[in-house]
Amino acid sequence: MRLKNKPWANDLVDQHPESALDRPDPSEKIDWAARFGNDHPIEIEIGSGKGQFITTLAKHHPETNFVAMEIQKTAAGIILKKKLDEGLDNLQILCADAANLVAYFGENSTSKIYLNFSDPWPKTRHEKRRLTYKSFLAEYQKVLTADGMIEFKTDNSGLYAYSVQSMNNYGMHFDFVSVDLHHEKEEIVEANVETEYEHKFASKGQPIYCLHAQFLPKN
């Protein structure tokens, strides 16, 4: 969902290039170790919205570096404000299109990719825009480590079914699947970090679909 333009958020991104990259040149590799000041494992959320999920993870896992990838500059600014307010040194914001993922992250550089409540693009002619379409999966496979994981959540049953089929056709292995995440075993529910959309949908009784998948080793 597109957010209403907030000039202060756009300005904040421009004022903090050390914490937020606004559509960087894809031809120039980003030195993430230099930006974070360490070489801790990197996890990416693609489509971070207002950032509730990624900032919560960053707060509770200082041993990991997180990148919030968000195409809307206003949303990037909202996440950046939370980062600055909470002093999250292990969070960077990347305002860019996920179609250029490999240009922004080196091969085998990322341990986990989160896809939370992505746009379902329900019309068949828009299939290539879905973040679980095969061309996106190919990008994820390049940047993930050999044991890297994709974690996917949605409230859209159609996108979930499509994603399961797309990942299966790509030859991926499923470590976890659920058609009602909030009614799984207690330990799974307690470990789950909610997004803004997830909290809204779950509070209305809508099921949350979830899967964790890995790429099989290349022959």
Task: Give an account of the 3D structure.
The chain has 219 residues and is an alpha/beta fold. The protein has helices at 7-15, 32-36, 52-60, 73-86, 101-104, 134-143, 157-169, 186-191, 196-203, and strands at residues 20-22, 42-46, 65-69, 91-95, 110-116, 144-154, 172-178, 209-215. Helix 4 links the parallel strand 3 (65-69) and strand 4 (91-95). Helix 1 (7-15) packs across helix 4. The chain is globular, with a radius of gyration of 17 Å. It catalyses: guanosine(46) in tRNA + S-adenosyl-L-methionine = N(7)-methylguanosine(46) in tRNA + S-adenosyl-L-homocysteine. It holds the Pfam family Methyltransf_4. Catalyzes the formation of N(7)-methylguanine at position 46 (m7G46) in tRNA.
Explain the layout of strands and helices.
Blueprint: H1 7-15, E1 20-22, H2 32-36, E2 42-46, H3 52-60, E3 65-69, H4 73-86, E4 91-95, H5 101-104, E5 110-116, H6 134-143, E6 144-154, H7 157-169, E7 172-178, H8 186-191, H9 196-203, E8 209-215
Parallel strand pairs: 1-4, 2-3, 2-5, 3-4, 5-6
Antiparallel strand pairs: 6-8, 7-8
Helix pairs in contact: 1-4
GO molecular function: tRNA (guanine(46)-N7)-methyltransferase activity
Region (Disordered): 1-26
InterPro entries: SAM-dependent_MTases_sf, tRNA_(Gua-N-7)_MeTrfase_Trmb, tRNA_methyltr_TrmB_bact
Instruction: Specify Rg, calculated over alpha carbons.
Output: 17 Å
Through-space gap between termini = 40 Å
Mean pLDDT: 95
Order of helices and strands: HEHEHEHEHEHEHEHHE
How many distinct beta strands? 8
Number of helices, where a helix is a run of at least 4 consecutive DSSP H or I residues: 9
Summing up helix and strand content along with how strands pair, one would put the structural category as alpha/beta
For the largest beta-sheet, the strand count, sense and barrel status come to:
8 strands, mixed
The level of helicity is 25-40%
CATH superfamily: Vaccinia Virus protein VP39
Assigned CATH architecture: 3-Layer(aba) Sandwich
Low-confidence stretches: none
Indicate how many domains the architecture comprises.
1
> What is the overall shape?
globular
- Biggest sheet: strand arrangement: 1-4-3-2-5-6-8-7
What fraction of residues sit in β-strands?
15-25%
CATH fold-level name: Rossmann fold
CATH class reads Alpha Beta
Region (Interaction with RNA): 125-130
Region (Disordered): 1-26
GO cellular component, one term: tRNA methyltransferase complex
Protein name: tRNA (guanine-N(7)-)-methyltransferase
